[in-house]
Amino acid sequence: MISATHLHAMIVHFPIALLLVGFLSELIGIVFKKSFFTQVSFYLLLLAAGGAITAYLTGDAAGDGMEGGSLKKAMDLHEQAAMITMWLTIAAASARTAYELLKNKMLWLKIAAFVLFAAATAGVGRTGYLGGQLVFKHAAGVELGLGNPDESFSE
């Protein structure tokens, strides 16, 4: 059976990749003045916002029941960074959507979306770093036992 921890680990990499590739696409579009890349960036940002919400919710479920200690402190830092990143991504996607719906008439919206997109991209880096610390330093979600050797891998 898939636990919340497994589900979070499977989902979380999508918004990370979508934000990073989307922001890179945005930069390429701006530097080379290619609307194709800015449009791709817009759609990747929308997907990243949905993925960030899903990743946050699965991570929240994975951390349920955590009591005190150093693992709890590290998990709280990761959760806080994830929440900030999620809201930055939603705000960037909202600003960029408003800009697109207004037929590109309000340049300040595009600038705000770009700044929020950059902040979300930086935020996902910090969140990922803290998530890596949870796994590699604190062994969060790592099963220490080898299990029953008689069990088959068909489950």
Largest sheet: none
Low-confidence runs of at least 5 consecutive residues? none
Span of the ends, CA to CA: 8 Å
Class inferred from helices and paired strands? mainly alpha
Write up what this structure looks like.
The structure is a single chain. The chain is mostly helical and 155 residues long. It has one domain (4-136). The protein contains five helices and no strands. It has helices spanning 4-11, 13-32, 35-62, 70-101, 107-136. Helix 1 (4-11) packs antiparallel against helix 3, helix 2 (13-32) runs antiparallel to helix 5 (107-136) and helix 4 (70-101) runs antiparallel to helix 5. The protein is elongated. It starts with a helix and ends in a 19-residue tail after the last helix. The model has no long low-confidence stretch (mean pLDDT 90).
What structural keywords apply?
mainly alpha, 5 helices, single chain, 155 residues
Question: In summary, what is this structure?
Answer:
By secondary structure, the protein is mainly alpha-helical.
Can you lay out the helices and strands and say which pair or pack?
Layout: H1 4-11, H2 13-32, H3 35-62, H4 70-101, H5 107-136
